[in-house]
Design brief:
EC 2.4.2.22, globular, glycosyltransferase, alpha/beta, cytoplasm, two-stranded antiparallel ribbon, transferase, 191 residues, 6-stranded mixed β-sheet, PRTase-like
């Protein structure tokens, strides 16, 4: 998606440790017009899949998932990273390791929001090591629902996550795949 790539080049900042800061438009301050174009693109890529739910993980994926859901006309469910008093009863659980935060989280979704008849599209902002995506995939499979695929805004193609997730049979549609990045040479996108 050229619009997204151009924005990453213009406003993204490369930091030590393979960190790409896109917080000025994607995951802290959010550019809703850009999100709208991202949502349209995900709808185009998954138009034949009869999506009934979009699943994401808190917090950065929520805004993107909500805008995308408008095009699919379906609800968004987000996996929480902490047990809360609001979630009572049966839950699906999994573990994910955050590349950015360097820690492991227990994620949960109330069973009432993921049903066997659902056709689920996972949406997230980044794909790096694949842990979040595999954790969300586990929740969908534990529910007996159908996973139609994953829509990723930015994939770090030089890390193992994309290959790992695809090797588990998950269809991954990434809008921008970065093959390499460093402060000296900048970003190289996959065509």
């Amino acid at each position: 998606m050229q619009l997204l790539k151009d924005r990453i080049i213009k406003d993204g900042k490369i930091r030590f440790g393979n960190v790409l800061k896109v917080d000025s438009f994607l995951n802290h301050q959010m550019d809703i017009e850009l999100f709208s174009e991202i949502g349209k693109e995900f709808k185009n890529r998954f138009i034949e899949d009869e999506v009934t739910k979009i699943l994401t993980i808190e917090a950065s994926g929520i805004g993107i998932a909500c805008i995308a859901a408008q095009y699919f006309k379906v609800p968004v469910v987000f996996a929480k990273k902490n047990q809360t008093k609001n979630i009572a009863g049966d839950v699906y659980t999994g573990k994910v390791e955050s590349f950015t935060h360097g820690r492991t989280y227990d994620i949960i979704v109330a069973k009432e929001f993921l049903q066997q008849e659902d056709k689920v599209l996972i949406i997230d902002d980044f794909l790096a090591n694949g842990s979040a995506l595999l954790g969300l995939t586990k929740l969908v499979r534990d529910a007996g629902a159908t996973l139609v695929g994953a829509g990723i805004v930015i994939e770090k193609g030089f890390q193992e996550g994309g290959e790992l997730v695809r090797s588990h049979g998950v269809r991954v549609e990434s809008l921008a795949i970065i093959d390499s990045m460093n402060e000296e040479d900048g970003l190289v996108f996959r065509n």
